[in-house]
Design goal:
Blueprint (H helix, E strand, L loop, with lengths): L2 H20 L5 H39 L1
Helix pairs in contact: 1-2
Length: 67
């Protein structure tokens, strides 16, 4: 395992614990399912959110240029 994979694994484990603990009002299986989903897909979700925000920023600039 490379150091980059180790960092990814450590961050995934940390996010799993944080999401599981912070969902303390939800039923156990919902907390566990959400935590596992976040731990598995946090990196693609961040990339998708960054692309989405970049698109919104570009759209705002284009709308501002039209006025």
């Amino acid at each position: 395992m490379s150091w980059l994979q180790g960092i990814h694994l450590a961050l995934s484990a940390i996010l799993l614990v944080i999401v599981f603990v912070e969902g303390n009002d939800d039923p156990f299986w919902l907390r566990l399912g959400t935590a596992v989903f976040v731990a598995l897909f946090w990196l693609p979700l961040i990339i998708i959110a960054a692309i989405w925000l970049l698109g919104d920023w570009i759209d705002g600039k284009l709308r501002g240029a039209r006025k």
